[in-house]
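Sequence in, structure out. Go.
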Amino acid sequence: MRRVLATGVSPRQVQDALAVCAAFNTTDRLADAFGFELLSPEGFEAGAKYLLKRGYR
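Output:
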C-alpha cells in the first residue's frame, strides 16, 4: 500500500478502486451461482446498437 500511495494515488482513490473490485467480484460470483451465460457476438452487437441508438456513449 505504501508503494501505491507513493505514486501519488490518494487514500480515497484506493478506497474507490477496492469498492469497484468488490462490486465486480460480487457480480461475478452471483453470475456463476445463477448460471448466467454471456451473449454471443451477435447479441453484444445488438445490445451495443440498442444503447447507441438511445444516446449511450
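Check: Residues 26 and 32 are 10 Å apart (CA to CA). The chain has a mean pLDDT of 96.
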